[in-house]
What does this fold into?
Amino acid sequence: MALDNSYQKNARFAGILYLITFVTSIPALLLLDPILHNERFITGSGSSSSILWGCILDMTNAIACIGTAVAIYPIVQKQNKSLALGFVTSRIFE
It folds into this structure.
């Protein structure tokens, strides 16, 4: 029973991190859009606070992506260790 409880905690934690990836990725894209599509942003008077918040949200998204894979790894490892390791690797490169 304790083993199932551990899996349930990992699954809930992974779900929360997965939701965090959605919540942080869309605003980060909107905040970083000016620097990605305006070649004069650096030399102009662009808003640095939006870029700062965009970068913070993007880093939070990256950490949540990796955390999702790490949280799911013990569960998937019991079925297929190679698949679990491949999932962690793909989330790190994402």
